[in-house]
Each structure stands twice: as C-alpha cells, then as structure tokens.
Write a structure and sequence with these properties.
With 710 residues, the protein is of the alpha+beta class. It is built from eleven helices and 42 strands. The N terminus is likely disordered.
C-alpha cells in the first residue's frame, strides 16, 4: 500500500472518529429527543378543504406557507403580524389552526375563537368562553362552541351569548365530559350533529362511585382532593346520552338497554342527522350491541349488529360514514381475529366485508368526496409497521405507502394526492407528496441529527414465545464502542400490557433516547414485546384474559434465555425497569422469578388488581367474585417473601390512574415480611413524572440500576 493511500485511510478514520465526539447527556436523553434531535419535517401540514393546495409552517409556526403539487416550493399565505393586526390579537404562531372552508381559518387561544378570511384579510371574534371552561368543541360550520364548566354543559350561540344545556346542582351528575375513564376509545363528551341541529353529550351519574382521597401538599395545611374512582367489582358510573335540540331547547335522554352501569360508547351521528349510533357494552364486556336511536325523540330504533366473545369485546372506533349523502357506514371489528372493516346499511344489513386482512387495521384516515374509496392505516404483515391502504366499496384493496416504516398520511379531498411522512430503522424522516399513480415528490428528507454524537446501535430480531410457535419482536441496544469479547450487564425495559407496543419500525425503533445514553454507560438495553401487547391480533393480545402476568412473564423469561445465550451478556447482571403495567411486570418478575434479576425499578405499579379501576381491570380480569384464583395468582403482595436483590418502588403522590394504595399495600407486606426495599415518591405528580422533573426521575432510576446491578 503506498504512503499516500495509507495517509488518506488514516485521515479518514481520524475524521470518522472525531466526527462523533459529542456525548449524550442524560438531560439530552430525557428532554431533547423530540426537541433538539427532532428530525426535519413538514410542520403543520394541512390540505386546504376541497382543493389540491396545502399549507405548512415555517419558522416554528410563525409563518403560514401555501403550496400545491405543481409547485411544492411554498409562498407565504399570511404573516402572523398581518393576522394579529386584523384580529387585534397576539397569537405567537399558527399552531392549532383549522379550516372552515377553502378561504377561512379558525384560530383559538383556548378561551377565544376567531375566524380569518384569507381573500379579504379580515376576521373577527366567534366566541369567548369563560375562564373555567373546558372541553371546548366547535361545530362543523365553526360558528358555535360547546364547552363544560364544572359539571354542566353550555354553548356560545352566534351572538356570543352563553346557553345552558344542563343545569344540574348535584355535582355527581356530570355532563359533556369523557366517561368510563376514557376507555373504549372515548376521548370526548360533546358531539355536534352534522348540521348543528342537535348537540349530543355524555352524562354520567357518579353519585354512588366511591371517593378516592388524594393529598394536595401545596397548601397549608395540606388539602384533601377527592376523585371518583370506581374500583373493580364496586359501584360504577351510570351513563346516559343526552340529545339537546337547539330549536326547541329540549333534551331527550338515551339510557342503556341493559344494566344501568353498562357502557354507552363510540357515539356517532348519521349524515342526515336522523339517527345516533351508540355501541352498548355490558359491564362484563363480553357482549356489544351497536344500537340505533331516533335523534328527535331518543327512541330506540333497532340493533344494527351484535358481537360476543368469552374474553372481551372492545369497540374503540365509532361508525364511519364514507359518504355524506348516505347512511351506510363502516364498522371496525376484530371478530375474525384481526381488526377489519365491514360495510353496513343503516338497516343493519352487512353489505360487504371490506377487508379480510390477517393483520391489524388501526384507523380510518378518511374517504374521497364521492365516498367510494376509504383510506386506512394498518400494520401490514409486519406488526412493527404502520402503513396506509385504500379500499373501495367492493373490497378492492391496495397499499399506498411503498416503504416499510411508521407512516403519517393525510389524503386530499378526492384522493388524487396524499401527504406521507415516515421513518424507519434507517430513515430519520422523509416527507413526500404522492399522486394517484403513487409517484413520489420529496418535500423534506431529514439528516441524521445524531451523526455527531457517540451513539450505539439497535438490533431488531425475533425469538419464539413461551408457546414455542409465536414470534416475538426484540430490540437490543448496544453501546457505540461495543466489544463482542466483553461481558455486558443488561437493563431490560418492559411494559408488557395491552394497547402498547414498545418496538416499532421507526427511527430509534421506538426506543427512548435515554436508553442510548444508558448504553454509553456500558450497558445493553433490551426489550421484548410479549404476548398481550398491541398490534398482533386478538389471539396474541387476549391470551392474558383472567391471568394477568402469566404469559407475559413466561415470554419475558424467554427474552432472558435469549440474552443468556449471547456470549457478550453477563447473565448474572440483569436489571429490569418498567412503569404502570411495566411496573406490575417489574415487581412480578422480581418476586415470581427471584434470582433472575439483581435489580428492579418499578414505577407506578399495579400490585393488586382489586385496587384498579373497573373499566380496564374488569375487561382483562373480570371481578374477584368471578375470578378469585386469577386475582390471587396476579397479586404481587402474595410473593413478597421471594424477594432477592434490590427493588426500588416509585409513585406519583397524586396518581389518579394507578392510585398509590398499590405501592403502599406492597410496602406494608414487605415490612411484615421483614424485607428491605427502597421507595421514592414524586410529590404532586400524577401517573407519570413529566417536565424537567423527569430528568430527576430517570437519573434516580438509572443510577439505582448502575449502583446495584452488580
């Protein structure tokens, strides 16, 4: 080799080495993943209604740009100063804008709602809601705002006057808010009809639901804060749906056809406003009926469909109407083992099973103007992906997104174009405009924001679950200076419960950036999505029914077996950490598989399922009266004598999801068993620790692992 080539090669490796001279701090790992390290993307993308034009933000939302497929290099549509001058406001960005029509913007500062017309450069105030208002919800024509104040429901009319829909003096009767603790896909409590003739809303009677005490330590003396918390097997909310007629100023109510504490879920309006569709689920959550009601009278019309399953039936998506001129609707169901789409008439006749995929449909993205094509998001055959598809009313399906990965897609009004932004294992982010023939135009392609940092790598593999046949996805993060001849300690990060998936085909593979920081401290960080987790179908997820912590633990131990098979893993230095369901898994693994892990850190753990809330807990465990054996088997309090190694328990003191009684009950049992454990509270934090305090939390967690996993 000649000297010049040797010099060049040496120079290359020196540059390569010194190119990655920056080191991640733990503060970076906790706070900067979606800030300083956020990939270059198209910010604020929206299609302008009924056009092929789109808008996006520049200067972090301070400039509103407009472009179209023929000229994707945007021009400024309106400046922030121009907008503020016209509205006499002080908006600091365009974040949160909505479109009333192709020329009119809607903006809100939280309490006040404004419109602004692009062509005239004029606008004004639509409504002002009270300081104590919450849940503000605009109607479809963007000229009425409904909201809640305390336990009642109101709206601001077109004269900006406050109209009371309910006036309950009993604080236990709550209108217009979410209920069932936001299970069943319930994310709102206010539902305008398409033409604003009616205003539907949830109302819950929680007068018989037990008060649960939380302590506010910010006052002197400290103050009791009671919340309504229906625990498994105890009295729960009694729901009904109100329908307020704006013309008559009268309200009719719909109550469950079954027991008074059945669940009324997934409310939707028919396009002609004649009907309200409600999925009623019995308290046992094994029987669901999609019922049709007359909007004017609240009268039951018919049951459109019924589903039963011995494990559970869990509707999470309301009926979707692809055409605004037809009452035919699309319904999500996993009755065949995977979430698929079914097309029904308003009479309840199945017109067509639109999809028959052996993978999970995740969401409907919309439909074209004619209502002949429906766009939806689904995993595809690889459950770590999130792809976009379309299907017509005859069931002809096609894949829209060419690349594997995790996609965010927005389709224009007629389906002639769609916006696609995605990442995957090797792609930080790529933003595309795609036409009907799937020809792509690149709008933005991000560089690797971590390229100057010492960063490890992640390996994505599969192992067999404890059943010997099911594939489980694993992620193993290694340090940047990984040496296969060394033995590394491992931190296993676990969640393990339903409605969650830790490993995705996205940049960093779904990992939190702090895991890469931990790897640079000389660790391997390992995760396996066990049976019971999301996006693999009903059989995969529902294996946990009635026996939480059995299949999940078995699969996590298979992950441990895999780790111990690797020559560079120190099988005597394994630690485990998780939060919420992952806290339940951490304590369960430490106590039911003693000696496997030297160290565990459990945040906000469920310790005894009888203390958990009814809506989630009864779906997966039934009640103690029905399944005492399952509750005893899952109860971590029954295994405290088995503890080996070091265990740190963490809890937010005002946690209203997994109440602190879980940890207190477990600690009491440890004391009785004369077992030493560590406990750290986060005062006035709820179910997780957010903001700058999260750095303190992760330093506490990771330093505890480093200090004790020996």
């Amino acid at each position: 080799m000649n000297k010049n080539l040797i010099a060049f090669v040496s120079f290359f490796f020196i540059v390569a080495a010194f190119g990655q001279t920056k080191q991640l701090t733990l503060e970076d790992g906790v706070l900067q993943q979606y800030r300083a390290f956020r990939p270059d993307q198209v910010l604020g993308f929206q299609w302008i209604p009924e056009t092929n034009k789109f808008v996006y933000f520049e200067e972090l939302g301070r400039k509103l740009m407009i472009a179209d497929p023929s000229n994707t290099k945007g021009t400024e549509l309106v400046s922030l100063s121009e907008l503020n001058a016209a509205l006499k406001t002080e908006f600091r960005s365009f974040w949160g804008i909505e479109w009333k029509d192709a020329s009119t913007l809607i903006l809100s500062d939280g309490a006040n709602f404004y419109n602004y017309t692009i062509s005239t450069k004029k606008g004004g105030l639509i409504a002002t809601t009270p300081d104590a208002a919450a849940g503000q919800t605009l109607n479809s024509s963007k000229d009425l705002v409904a909201f809640t104040e305390a336990n009642n429901l109101y709206f601001m009319d077109k004269n900006n006057a406050k109209v009371a829909v309910t006036s309950e003096t009993n604080a236990g009767i709550v209108s217009g808010q979410t209920y069932a603790r936001s299970e069943f896909g319930i994310t709102q409590g206010i539902f305008w009809s398409p033409k604003s003739t009616y205003l539907a809303f949830y109302q819950k009677d929680e007068t018989e639901v037990a008060d649960y005490p939380l302590l506010d330590i910010t006052e002197t003396p400290a103050k009791l804060m009671n919340i309504k918390y229906p625990m498994i097997g105890q009295k729960s909310e009694k729901p009904r749906v109100g329908i307020y007629n704006l013309s008559t100023k009268q309200t009719v109510f719909i109550t469950p056809k079954g027991a008074v504490d059945a669940y009324l879920t997934n409310l939707s309006w028919s396009p002609d406003e004649k009907y309200v569709l409600i999925a009623e689920v019995n308290r046992e959550q094994n029987n669901m009926s999609l019922n049709l009601y007359d909007a004017k009278t609240g009268t039951f019309v018919r049951t459109l469909l019924n589903e039963k399953n011995d494990r559970w039936v869990e509707p999470e998506k309301p009926a979707f109407f692809p055409s605004q001129t037809s009452n035919n609707f699309v319904w999500f169901s996993e009755k065949d083992g995977f979430q698929n789409l079914y097309y029904y008439s308003i009479e309840g006749k199945l017109l067509k099973q639109l999809t028959s995929n052996k993978f999970v449909t995740q969401a409907i993205l919309g439909a074209n103007t004619k209502g002949t094509e429906i766009y939806f998001q689904a995993t595809g055959p690889n459950g770590t992906n999130s792809l976009a598809y379309k299907v017509d009313l005859k069931g002809k399906q096609s894949l829209l997104t060419k690349n594997d990965g995790t996609h965010t897609v927005a389709v224009n009004h007629d389906g002639s174009y769609f916006f696609d932004e995605y990442s995957n294992h090797t792609t930080p982010s790529k933003s595309l405009l795609v036409d009907a023939k799937l020809k792509e135009t690149v709008l933005v392609e991000s560089s690797n924001k971590y390229k100057d940092y010492q960063m490890g790598t992640a390996e994505i593999k599969t192992i067999k679950s404890a059943d010997g046949t099911t594939d489980l996805v694993t992620r193993l993060i290694k340090p940047s200076n990984f040496d296969a001849t060394k033995k590394y300690p491992v931190l296993v990060y676990v969640y393990g419960g339903p409605h969650a998936q830790l490993i995705t085909n996205s940049y960093l593979d779904g990992a939190s950036l702090w895991m890469y920081w931990m790897a640079e401290q000389g660790y391997l960080v390992f995760t396996v999505d066990n049976r019971g987790s999301d996006n693999r179908g009903f059989a995969f997820e529902s294996i946990i029914h009635g026996r939480l912590g059995i299949s999940e633990i078995d699969d996590q131990i298979k992950g441990v077996d895999y780790l111990k098979s690797l020559p560079y893993v120190d099988g005597n230095r394994l630690a485990v950490h998780g939060w919420s369901y992952g806290g339940f898994m951490t304590t369960s693994l430490m106590l039911r598989k003693p000696g496997t892990f030297t160290t565990g850190v459990a945040g906000g753990p469920v310790t005894d399922w009888k203390y958990y809330e009814a809506m989630y807990g009864e779906r997966y465990m039934d009640t103690p009266a029905e399944n005492q054996k399952g509750f005893d088997e899952a109860n971590t309090l029954n295994y405290v004598k088995n503890l080996e190694g070091k265990l740190l328990l963490i809890h937010g003191t005002v946690d209203d999801v997994v109440v602190m009684q879980h940890n207190m009950a477990l600690i009491k049992k440890f004391i009785e068993a004369e077992k030493q454990v560590d406990f750290f509270p986060y005062p006035m934090h709820k179910h997780n620790v957010g903001g700058k305090d999260r750095v303190h939390l992760m330093r506490k967690v990771l330093q505890y692992v480093i200090d004790n996993n020996k």
